Fold this sequence. Notes:
Strands 1-2-3-5-4 form a five-stranded antiparallel sheet, with helices on both faces. The protein has a three-stranded antiparallel sheet with strand order 6-8-9. A two-stranded antiparallel sheet has the order 7-10. Strand 1 (17-21) and strand 2 form a beta hairpin. 41% of the residues lie in helices and 14% in strands. It has ten helices and ten strands.
Amino acid sequence: MTTFRDFLVDEFPDAPVSELSGSNNLVYLVRTDQGPVVAKHVVDGDIPLGYLAEATAALGAHLPVQRIHRVCRTEDGDPFDAVFAEYVEGENLAAAMEREEDGPSTDALVDHLCRFVLACRHLPPMRDGYGLYKREAPALATWPEFVVHYGRRYWNRVRPFYEGTETAAAVDAWLDGGFAEAAKAHTAPHTVVSIDANLKNTVVAPDGRMVVLNVPIAALSAPAHAVGAISLHLRHRPPYKPFLDAAAERLCPDDAPLVPHFELWGMLGILSFYAVRQPERQHEWRNWGSPVLLDDDFRDLVRTHLPAPERP
């Protein structure tokens, strides 16, 4: 059976091919005579590749993105689902932020993140109703149903680690009605938002530009959802409060009090990732690049922002 690497060798004769990543999708760098090309064999297939190309073009009209040159789809007769894109030299934003002395300035970082949120509002809708913009995601009738559906899905994987704790009781109550009550008090028009804003998907180029590598998983949701998906990754770091202050003014003036709810929602997603893949290493779990353990951050977020459930 022909491998994706063999396919690349045939597509680009005499061009050196080297692996960039093999953790999920297979990603190779192909050094052609016309310049380097990033070739990604898409094996998880969460986002339909046709929508990926369309969304990348929409995002690129508003901020720097990794441009897509070509899309291959097995449904069209191609041998692989794959994306060929430009090579962006630099360091991912999560790593660059760890070098506080020469990483991006707080002002530059906050401005980029705000522009990213606003740019995502121009992403094309992929479905009617509420649900993740993924191939097999369910379409849900209401927004609270959408938020609670995924929150409960993530929490079901994580809850065994917190059985019998006040943290578990508080999250249970939040999913059983606490979020819905909070959402009623802080309404805002819904828009397309990124709900998976991993800072590793932005590269800081040598000239200081911040370039988005991957169109994130999106959905129709409240503005605060987009903000919480980002601020989650800034917690316990100097840019956290400046970003929240700017977001409350520029991005979510009507529903800013909901941001901690979406930080929690996103944190449950990260916890569920680890609960499935590294259940025996809870003492090592960290949000990417975070200076604190994920377990400590989670308990602190719940204690700070969720009311203790009433005792019978």
